Structure formats: C-alpha cells, structure tokens
Amino acid sequence: MAFYRPDPQMQSQLGELLNEFAKKNRPGLHKNIAISWIRYTSPNPEPCSGIGTGWSEQKLIYPASVVKLFYAIAVEAWLQKDLLLESSELRRAMQEMLSNSSNDATSLVLDLLSGTTSGPSLFGERWQAWKKQRLLVNKWLDGLNWPELKGINCCQKTWEDRPYGREQDFYKDGYVNRNALSSSCTARIFEAVMTNGIVSPPACKRLRTLLSRSLDERQRKENPENQIDGFLGEGLPKGTRIWSKAGWMSQVRHDAAWCCRPQGNPMLLVVFSQGKQNANDKVLLPALAKELMNLHQEMD
C-alpha cells in the first residue's frame, strides 16, 4: 500500500505526459524513467496525507547524489542516539554535502556514520568487520519498517572519479553492490523531512534549511552547482519555494523536490531518469516540473 492515496486521474495525466515527451525524440523514455508525484490539500500537511501516483516508482536505480539526503537524515538520527558527537566540522560537512553536493564532505559523513575509512584492501576478520560496519545505514533504514525502503542500498560513498582499494572491493565485480534507491522511497523520506515525520522536528528543520534552494537567476549564475538549472526547479514559476536534492552523473539525471507556490499547497515530485541520453537532457526534468505543477495548480 502506498504512503499516499492513489489518484486515477493523476495516473492518467502522468501517463499522457510521458507519452508526449517520449514522442519528442526520447525513444525508450518509459523504460528509463521513474516518477513519484504527490500533491497535498493543506499548506502544512501531515505525514502520509498526500494524493498521488507514480511511474515505475518501485524500480531500484543508481541514485547518484540523491543518496546524500539519506545520509544527512542518518546523521541526525545518530546524534539523537548519542552515536555521534556534535561538532562544527560535522555541520560543515552536512552543509557542503546537501547545499553544494560535495563528494568529499559525503566521504567524511559516511565515515562518521559507519566507523569506517577508505584505504587499501583489507582481508580476513578486518575486512568482514569493515563490511558489517558499512551496512549500518541500511540496518537503520530497515528498522523504520517502511515498505518503500525494502531492497534499497545506502552504503557507498559518492565519487568524482571512481572507487579504489577497499571501496572498489566493496562495490564487487560489475558494481553489483552500488547504491540503489527508488523514486518511491525517496519521496517517502523527503516527505518525512518536510512534515516532521522522522527523527525530530528540530532535526527536520535543520535539514530543510540545507535543502532550501533559490530560484533567483542571479544567485544561480553565481553558483553553477545550484541544483536548479537542468533540474526540476528550473521549470517552476517565479515565487515558488523549493526544497530539493539533485543527482547527476554520466548515466543518470535525478531530482527530488518539494515545491510550494505562494498561497498554494505543496507538491512533491521525484524524477529518476537513466541512460546517457536522459543524463544529458537538460530540458526533460524542468519540462516535467512545469507541466505537473500546472496540473497541480488546476486541481488545488
């Protein structure tokens, strides 16, 4: 059962929209995209109170930097349980990981969460202990008992280039142990942050501060890594408030965004697209956001 109330009209609208975009020189789009689209009827919704639909939303896909959202929430959970020490360096890493999508900062965060470090290959008991520790975030997520989280994988760092040493060993041949998320699980955990439905309200507030984006064109020009241009935020009308986390590399282009127009109710949209063509398509995500926000406004 979905964490939102399924809406047949939204399902039909989403399917028609995908058909239109597929016809615009995007062969195979239906097989290479996953979407969770949820709208709310209150400006301050409760968890699991949305109305929505999805497309291939349970499909597990390499999430690129979207996984950083999960690591950030885990940090707040660890701090709440006194499993981590509060420090200015930890907060600096959190800021860079979410606001600027820094891979170096993410490396430190995952080291702190798991009690592991990168380095040369390990063997024997040391290697077994390292691998067990590295699965702690997965173990915590599994303990939430949310059906949307079943089968996902959050145990790898993100890289500018590629993993080496024990990190390469942990990926296994063919990268079969790489991170894997669905649009559905991403939507569920994003909604939890936006509705104070996980960890604690103060922690969610801190996370929302780091996820907040600006649609101001001048600020976007000053920051090429703004996570708006080429992603969902670019397609939203001026004045829209947005909280988001994007992910992009040579084979994927993803974004998860909570959007709210002035005097309007929120909309949550998660789009995962894969394949080299979609990864290089800077038009698709903004165009989807524009059309789905227009439909949300009509139904609001």
- Overall shape: it is globular
In terms of per-residue confidence, which ranges show pLDDT below 50 for 5 or more consecutive residues? Answer: none
SSE string, helices as H and strands as E: EHEEHHHHHHHHEHEEEHH
User: So, CATH architecture?
Assistant: 3-Layer(aba) Sandwich
CATH topology type:
Beta-lactamase
CATH superfamily: DD-peptidase/beta-lactamase superfamily
Estimate what percentage of residues fall within beta strands: 5-15%
Please tell me the total number of domains: 1
The level 1 CATH classification is Alpha Beta
Specify the number of helices: 12
Distance between the termini: 24 Å
Helix content: 40-55%
Biggest sheet overview: 7 strands, mixed
Q: Could you say which structural class the secondary elements and strand pairing correspond to?
A: alpha+beta
Radius of gyration: 19 Å
Strand order of the largest sheet: 1-3-2-7-6-5-4
Average pLDDT figure: 96
> How many beta-strand segments?
7
